[in-house]
């Protein structure tokens, strides 16, 4: 029973509920009176309502573990206990793991003299609080570090015992998110679990040998507020004495998601680390990790759990410890869809960061980088972004609207420096990339959009490929996934270099900044600063056509310019030496003054790309749908052989991506996780993106539905704020469907 003390918390639950419907999770909204009628022990006087999950429950982890162990043994599994892994060696086709037998000594388990070596094709590490020791043995980094966690067990509550004696079933778990705690029944009494502020990280560099299953000293003052909140919510608990209290380590990661999947740089080494919610995710993790090991991929996209989402290039122990503390005390805060967390920021900043901040930039966190989400008022305090967040149209919304209009009607400048950027070159580069990606490779000086596929034929990575020379390519991909992409590229190159010839891979993400300039007046701005023998024609279609790339000079800055715009307007990406970014920013800003150029953030850009039906990696594109299901056949060349082609063809089109215009509420837009229904109430899919269209003056979204519904003119319903709103499937690229604007000459 998730209770809400405010309407904003109910807004959060309504968004959860729409997402829950996409996968068949049942729920029920309850008023305070309805809560009181069912569970009279609860004080409901300050509640706005609740969401109740009838099929939810809890289990005893120890009992489940023993049951699973018994079933495993019955199927031939050997389970060995009290061995410590001391060394991992990759032998080219298998792992040799050196184990030391642990023995009792002085009440502690210590390494004994017996050792053995286990050879295994695959190794899975699930070392819990000992993840830092595992990481050192493997020579990798993992942001899995424990945080102190306290909980309290009370004596029996006579009121609860009476409630049960009257024939009532077990009391539901009471999650009082606004009080940062949960309470559940335990042998006639209660367990109080808290997620308070200032719980410290521990064992940043590894668990001491002397600490096995021990506990920390209690710090009950730290959770006094939550204890009093329990008494307020369950008044009868005030009469209960305290039976037990605990303070122990619980492993966390910076975003609260576990680290599940292939270890960076290693073969057949799988991580299952950082499970802050214990056994809750065990079944799903084992199921999908087994699919990865056996089939090469899981049936769902596991990218949000991939260990490489925290790059070893910038993730440190200090970062992980401080972010894990923040994640712990953020368990029960309001999780807005546009949530930004402040700890360890700013960390990675481009040179123009201070200039953009001075102009009102409110930043988002992307792979450690600070990237402008939107530009607020110049006199805004640092807390503006926090105050502006909402499950509806927050204070930021109007600023994003003006930014989107600027690009549609004039010109805007976007900092896209967080893009991942790799150079692939060498004698085997062309043959390799032709196999590695599903589209035709571009000619020298041209670009193509293409996809690297998984073994299952689904989308592993989206690339903009620029062909710089005959055997030299510049690959641009999503900013959040630099090491994720680099690791996949590196391993694929290792597998194919003997077949295709020498291939060199370079991560140049930090070397090149990117400004995207777009809008009907973008050429006018660039014409003022371009240095060329004939500046009037330098950016014309004849000399610089759409989907081409060429080096240009803007003032004193050398720029690798690409004629492409993620917003669907006339525009260029200006890839420049990072050390010259401030010079280029000042140059463009001054030139833009004559044309009303506006600085634009990621939220407006996200809306604009939906008006063009541009799919986004991590939203429409991922490892649970093929490019054909994303309705991108023009980027798949079935006349050539490429990795994942057979499975791509075999899979067919199970679902299909489409764009929808939505007549939604006046104060809210979809976020991209809402359920979709037909007019007769049949559930047919879900949104993957959402926002506001300045061109159409209404909400817009993209999502996946059954192929027969992904037809222009199909009327659907989208669930927002616990209501169904009209939506209609529109054509692909509803804004400028013929791409006339983006090809505009000058």
Structure description:
- The protein has 746 residues and is of the alpha+beta class.
- Helix content is 24%, strand content 29%.
- Among the domains are: 1-56, D-Amino Acid Oxidase, subunit A, domain 2 (D-Amino Acid Oxidase, Chain A, domain 2); 122-161 and 184-331, D-Amino Acid Oxidase, Chain A, domain 2; 420-507, Alpha-Beta Plaits, CATH 3.30.70.1400; 625-729, Elongation Factor Tu (Ef-tu), domain 3.
- The strands form seven sheets. Strands 2-3-1-9-10-11-8-12 form an eight-stranded mixed β-sheet, sandwiched between helices. A six-stranded mixed β-sheet has the order 24-25-26-23-17-27, sandwiched between helices.
- β13 and β14 form a beta hairpin.
- The longest helix is centred in the middle third of the chain and has 19 residues, at 482-500.
- The radius of gyration is 28 Å and the shape is globular.
- The N and C termini lie far apart (62 Å).
Walk me through the topology.
Blueprint: E1 2-4, H1 7-22, E2 28-30, H2 32-38, E3 49-52, H3 61-74, E4 83-90, E5 95-105, E6 108-120, E7 123-125, H4 131-138, E8 145-154, H5 158-165, E9 174-176, E10 181-186, E11 189-194, H6 224-233, E12 242-252, E13 259-262, E14 269-273, H7 282-295, H8 317-329, H9 353-358, E15 361-366, E16 369-375, H10 384-388, H11 397-409, E17 412-415, E18 420-425, H12 429-436, E19 447-453, E20 459-469, E21 472-477, H13 482-500, E22 504-507, E23 512-518, H14 522-527, E24 549-554, E25 557-562, E26 571-577, H15 581-593, E27 598-600, H16 602-611, H17 645-651, E28 656-663, E29 675-678, E30 683-693, E31 698-705, E32 715-720, E33 723-729
Parallel strand pairs: 1-9, 7-14, 17-27
Antiparallel strand pairs: 1-3, 2-3, 4-5, 5-6, 8-11, 8-12, 9-10, 10-11, 13-14, 15-16, 17-23, 18-21, 18-22, 19-20, 20-21, 23-26, 24-25, 25-26, 28-31, 28-33, 29-30, 29-32, 30-31, 32-33
């Amino acid at each position: 029973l998730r209770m809400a003390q405010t309407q904003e918390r109910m807004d959060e639950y309504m968004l959860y509920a729409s997402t829950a419907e996409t996968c068949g999770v049942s729920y029920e909204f309850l008023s305070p009176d309805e809560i009181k009628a069912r569970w009279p022990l609860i004080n409901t006087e300050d509640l706005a309502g609740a969401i109740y999950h009838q099929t939810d429950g809890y289990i005893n982890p120890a009992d489940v573990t023993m049951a699973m162990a018994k079933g495993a043994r019955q199927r031939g599994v050997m389970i060995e206990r009290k061995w410590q892994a001391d060394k991992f060696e990759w032998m080219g086709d298998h792992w040799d793991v050196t184990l030391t037998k642990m023995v009792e000594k002085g009440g502690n388990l210590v390494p004994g003299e017996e050792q053995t070596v286990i050879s295994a094709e695959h190794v899975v590490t699930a070392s819990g609080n000992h993840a830092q020791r595992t990481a050192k043995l493997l020579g990798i980094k993992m942001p899995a570090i424990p945080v102190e966690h306290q909980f309290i067990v009370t004596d029996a509550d006579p009121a609860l015992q009476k409630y049960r004696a009257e024939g009532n079933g077990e009391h539901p778990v009471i999650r009082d998110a606004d009080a940062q705690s949960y309470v559940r029944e335990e042998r006639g009494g209660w367990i109080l679990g808290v997620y308070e502020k200032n719980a410290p990280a521990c064992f940043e560099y590894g668990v001491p040998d002397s600490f096995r299953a021990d506990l920390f000293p209690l710090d009950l003052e730290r959770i006094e507020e939550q204890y009093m909140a329990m008494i307020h919510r369950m008044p009868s608990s005030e009469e209960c004495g305290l039976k037990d209290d605990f303070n122990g380590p619980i492993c966390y990661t910076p975003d609260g998601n576990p680290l599940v999947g292939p270890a960076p740089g290693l073969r057949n080494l799988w991580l299952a680390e950082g499970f802050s919610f214990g056994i809750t995710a065990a079944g799903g993790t084992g199921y999908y990790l087994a699919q990865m090991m056996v089939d090469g991929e899981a049936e769902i996209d596991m990218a949000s759990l991939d260990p490489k989402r925290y790059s070893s290039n910038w993730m440190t122990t200090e970062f992980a410890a401080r972010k894990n503390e923040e994640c712990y005390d953020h368990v029960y805060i309001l999780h807005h869809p546009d949530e930004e967390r402040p700890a360890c920021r700013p960390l990675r900043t481009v040179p123009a960061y201070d200039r953009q901040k001075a102009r009102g930039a409110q930043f988002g966190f992307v792979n450690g980088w600070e990237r402008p989400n939107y530009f607020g008022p110049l006199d805004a305090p640092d807390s503006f972004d926090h105050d502006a967040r909402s499950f509806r149209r927050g204070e930021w919304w109007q600023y994003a609207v003006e930014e989107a209009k600027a690009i549609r009607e004039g010109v805007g400048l976007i900092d896209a420096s967080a893009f991942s950027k790799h150079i692939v070159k060498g004698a085997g580069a062309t043959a390799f990339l032709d196999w590695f990606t599903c589209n035709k490779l571009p000619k020298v000086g041209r670009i193509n959009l293409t996809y690297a596929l998984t073994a299952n034929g689904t989308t592993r990575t989206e690339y903009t490929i620029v062909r710089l020379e005959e055997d030299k390519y510049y690959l641009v991909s999503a900013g959040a996934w630099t090491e994720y992409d680099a690791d996949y590229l590196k391993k694929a190159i290792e597998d194919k270099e003997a077949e295709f010839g020498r291939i060199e891979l370079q991560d140049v993400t930090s070397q090149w900044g990117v400004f995207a300039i777009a809008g009907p007046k973008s050429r006018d701005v660039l014409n003022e600063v371009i240095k060329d023998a004939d500046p009037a024609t330098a950016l014309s279609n004849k000399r610089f056509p759409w989907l081409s790339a060429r080096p240009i000079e803007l003032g004193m800055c050398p720029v690798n310019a690409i004629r492409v715009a993620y917003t669907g307007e006339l525009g260029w990406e200006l890839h420049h030496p990072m050390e010259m970014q401030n010079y280029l920013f000042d140059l463009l800003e001054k030139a833009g003054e004559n044309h009303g150029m506006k600085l634009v953030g990621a939220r407006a850009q996200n809306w604009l790309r939906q008006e063009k039906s541009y799919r986004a990696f991590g939203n429409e594109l991922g490892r649970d749908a093929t490019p054909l299901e994303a309705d991108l056949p023009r980027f798949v060349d079935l006349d050539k052989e490429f990795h994942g082609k057979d499975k791509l063809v075999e899979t067919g089109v199970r679902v299909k991506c489409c764009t929808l215009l939505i007549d939604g509420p006046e104060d809210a837009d979809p976020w991209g996780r809402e359920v979709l229904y037909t007019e007769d109430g049949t559930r047919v899919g879900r949104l993957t993106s959402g926002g506001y269209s300045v061109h159409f003056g209404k909400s817009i979204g993209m999502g996946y539905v059954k192929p027969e519904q992904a037809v222009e003119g199909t009327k659907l319903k989208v669930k927002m704020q616990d209501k169904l709103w009209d939506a209609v499937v529109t054509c692909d690229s509803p804004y400028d469907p013929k791409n006339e604007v983006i090809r505009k000459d000058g």
